């Protein structure tokens, strides 16, 4: 029985290094077309048979991009994912999804991906704070990394300013004539990082204070977004009053609870959310739009740029927020 042809044999016949053969088979976009052709001709001549998946990808020149996000927990990440698909459509790229329920649960998965990611050329990490130990592990790998809604000095990133979003909400509600204010956000599962909810609350509270308004601590309610119980509402609101919910999803739950108590929106209580999703459009909900689809597209573009130039300085793109006023914050009175 003839001996099995190995990667060493292919490298010797092609006159290249073993690492070049490996790249040509497993990460073809990182090898020039001429070099790929040289490796493939040697492999064909020797009858070399790498794993089927690697062969298929190599022949197509396809790279693999992983996307890690809490898809099962937050609808906003599906909008970002659609942006990823739109940007990847024009490139020979496969998208591999990794889901996690919440930010704290993502760290073990992130740490293991360099070993278990299945030949990923790059990874887009969405909505996960980058702990230093995890960042060090990823930097040791060969993957290009882009962060969405996170930042680290050594990785490219796309983000919005959530503190500025909270300030924008405060400006709108004060301009509309509201006098008392409440905030409904998501309860933190871990205090090792600051969530978007915390940052939006910070901006909301700071701006109200600058405008001479008070956000009373008892008017801040944090809920378990994935629980079954109806959300508790702030108790100290006096008309004309308004609530800022940290997302459209939270605002929708609040709106249902408000209406079950016979409270009218906007006549008795103003309400606004964040994301400006299809949910906000359907509910006629005032919301702050963050460019979710665009953030996914930009993440892919940054990643492809990084694959072409590994030594370029890390780039951070900050996207603009825009308020969309609707019925739920019509002028009180």
Give a verbal description of the structure:
It is a single chain. The strands form two sheets. The protein has a six-stranded parallel sheet with strand order 2-1-3-4-5-11, sandwiched between helices. Strands 7-6-8-9-10-12 form a six-stranded mixed sheet, sandwiched between helices. With 333 residues, it is α/β, with parallel strands linked by helices. It is elongated and about 80 Å long. Strand 1 (63-69), helix 5 (76-88) and strand 2 (93-99) form a beta-alpha-beta unit. Helix 1 (7-14) packs across helix 2. The protein has three domains: 7-60, lambda repressor-like DNA-binding domains (434 Repressor (Amino-terminal Domain)); 63-160 and 292-319, Rossmann fold (3-Layer(aba) Sandwich); 162-290 and 322-329, 3-Layer(aba) Sandwich (Rossmann fold). The chain starts with 6 loop residues before the first helix and ends in a 9-residue tail after the last strand. The model has no long low-confidence stretch (mean pLDDT 84). 42% of the residues lie in helices and 19% in strands.
């Amino acid at each position: 029985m003839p001996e099995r042809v190995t990667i060493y044999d292919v490298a010797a016949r092609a006159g290249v290094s073993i690492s070049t053969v490996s790249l040509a088979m497993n990460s073809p976009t990182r090898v020039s077309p001429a070099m790929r052709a040289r490796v493939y001709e040697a492999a064909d001549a020797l009858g070399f048979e790498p794993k089927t998946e690697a062969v298929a990808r190599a022949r197509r020149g396809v790279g693999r991009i992983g996307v890690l996000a809490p898809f099962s927990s937050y609808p906003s990440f599906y909008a970002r994912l659609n942006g990823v698909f739109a940007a990847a459509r024009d490139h020979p790229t496969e998208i591999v999804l990794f889901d996690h329920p919440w930010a704290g649960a993502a760290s073990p998965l992130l740490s293991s991906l360099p070993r278990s990611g299945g030949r990923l050329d790059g990874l887009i990490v969405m909505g996960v704070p980058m702990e230093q130990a995890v960042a060090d592990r990823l930097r040791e790998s060969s993957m290009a990394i882009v962060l969405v809604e996170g930042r680290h000095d050594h990785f490219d990133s796309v983000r919005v300013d959530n503190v500025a979003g909270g300030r924008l909400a405060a400006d709108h509600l004060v301009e509309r004539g509201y006098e008392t204010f409440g905030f409904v956000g998501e309860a933190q599962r871990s205090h090792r990082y600051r969530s978007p909810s915390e940052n939006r609350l910070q901006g909301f509270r700071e701006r109200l204070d600058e405008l001479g308004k008070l956000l009373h601590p008892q008017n801040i309610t944090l809920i378990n977004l994935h629980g079954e119980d109806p959300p508790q509402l702030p108790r100290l609101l006096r008309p004309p009053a308004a609530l800022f919910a940290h997302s459209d999803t939270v605002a929708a739950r609040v709106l249902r609870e408000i209406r079950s108590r016979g409270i009218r929106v906007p006549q008795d209580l103003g309400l606004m959310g964040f994301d400006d999703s299809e949910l906000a459009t359907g509910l006629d909900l005032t919301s702050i739009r963050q460019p979710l689809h665009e953030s996914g597209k930009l993440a892919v573009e940054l990643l492809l740029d990084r694959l072409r130039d590994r030594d370029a300085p890390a780039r951070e793109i900050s996207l603009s927020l825009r308020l969309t006023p609707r019925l739920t914050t019509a002028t009180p009175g």
